[in-house]
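Lab notebook, bench 4. The sequencing result for the construct came back, and we need a structural model before the next group meeting so we can plan mutations. Quick request posted to the team channel:

Model the 3D structure of this chain.
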Amino acid sequence: MSAPGKRRISFLGDSYTVGHGIKNVDKRFANQVRNMMKDEWEVQVLAGNGLDTGAELYVLESYIKAGFQFDNLILIYCLNDISDIIPKFKNILKEIYKGKKSEGFFLKNSYFINLLYYRFVRGRNPNISNYYGFVRDAYYSNHWEDQKNRLHLLCKLCHSRGINLMVVTFPFLHALDNGYEYGEIHEKLNKFWKEQKIPYLDLLSIYEGHKASELIISRYDAHPNEYAHSLAAEAIKNFIIRKD
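Done. Here's the predicted structure in token form:
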């Protein structure tokens, strides 16, 4: 149950929602929203590194079965949430996990050596280096229909339980420089949410005009940094207020 006199907001998402790469957890957008709206809202975070739409559906169903009480659910959608239904991505995971089984002592026990090794692997393996291309192409294939079906299931589940669903979409921040090639994917997603009558916030408009280097953890880690989280937090807070 939520605290007396307060409504509950639950963020459902992946590593963006976890705040991967952020040293101070209070700097991630969910915690910033919590601090800005603490007098009115109770903010929960249901997230995990690597979660895609399939796993997020499972997490939501599990919490519902466990008796967790939802008021408002905000799905934090990243463009790669479609990845788990892309066969090429599944093959990438197999290669990575296969490599980890054969790691020697230094790879397992030295962060620096491990980091250098996997940067080298990423650069030499075309499947891994072309990951974002696989994701982009998935939205122009039958995988997009499969993804819409899964998102529709999520919408239906929320509706059947009286959960007010909202969606926030993050762009690929590393790709903002020199023309953003994923704009049409955002349009596809926005059209879908509009058809489902689900309130949505596309953060692309918030981040456009910024350099990628201003928004990401590092050139090797495309997750949002503290500044990007602060921009998201302010936009999400205003989005919640408008839709309240």
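The first strand starts at residue 7 and ends at 13.
Will bring this to the meeting.
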